[in-house]
Amino acid sequence: MKLKARVAIITGSSRGIGKAIAQRFAADGAKVIVNYKNSAELGQTVVDEIQNSGGEAIAVQADVSIRAQTDRLRDESLDAFGQIDILVSNAGIVIDKPYIDSTEEDWNVAIDSNLRGFFNVTQSILPHMIERKYGRVIATGSIINEVADFGGNKYSICTASKGGIVDMMHPIAAEMAGHGITVNAVSPGYIATEMLGEIDAAGLEEALRLVPMRRYGKPEEIAAAMAFLASDEAAYITGQTIRVNGGMSMS
Predict the structure, then answer these.
(1) 156-176 and 117-132 helices cross at what angle (nearest 10)?
(2) Is the pLDDT of residue 195 over 90?
């Protein structure tokens, strides 16, 4: 139980990769805060599954693009468990649209959901970690920052938001290093989650040809990398991005 006695917030954890992370952390002994934006039912389902497996978890609604709500997420987590050791900034969206057809609204939604969400949750929770001289911050990056051509899928707007997260991570990691806090990212490739259904089918088929392993990743494989970075075994790793993409970024 590598995460025993740790408390972890995983944003956007009512489904997909976030759900897998919450389940893995709970299996490794952490007390988990399952965060959701809209579906209380999905969030509670994840909590019920964790509790039925002998773990501890609560569900907290919060839109991470709104600072007041991330502050409330922090406060409710502290009220429930008394501390926050691990923050996984996972909540985000995918926009698949040609750049010249993208709108200002697309830009605002991507930046707010992805980049501003990372800014809000880290600003809310890092002071608590600094006070305790311990913390693990892990962001969900993306292969889209390294591979431009996805066989017809177009992610220019989302790339800006995800790239901003990874670039911000480095100086934050440098600032936090002296406080016993590590800041890292896990960059998934194509992962078999509900989000794949939001991407053009022809583009998905073409993109799979770019993956040397010739398969989609599993959410549990992202969760495994997150669990390592959250553990004490990764105490000397900070400012790094672990790429979990079936070898896609080698090209």
Answers:
(1) 10
(2) no
